[in-house]
Amino acid sequence: MSDDTRDGPASDDTRDGPRSDDRRDGSARGDGGGRSETESYDTAAAAESALDRMTDGFIAVDTEWRVTFVNERADELLGAANTPEPGEDFWGAYPGLRESAFGEAYRRAIETREPQTVEAYYDHLDGWFEATAYPSEDGLSIYFQDVTERRELEESLRLENELRRQVFETAPTGIVVVDADGVVRQANDRALQLLGIEESQLGTITYDDPEWETFDESGDPLDTYPVDEVLATDEPVRHYEHGFEREDGTQLWLSVSAAPLHDADGSVQRIVVVFDDHTEQRTLETRLRESEASLRRLYEVAGDPETAFEAKLR
Question: I want to staple 116 with a disulfide (CB 3.0 to 4.6 A). Which of 105, 147, 196, 214 is the partner?
Answer without folding.
Answer: 105
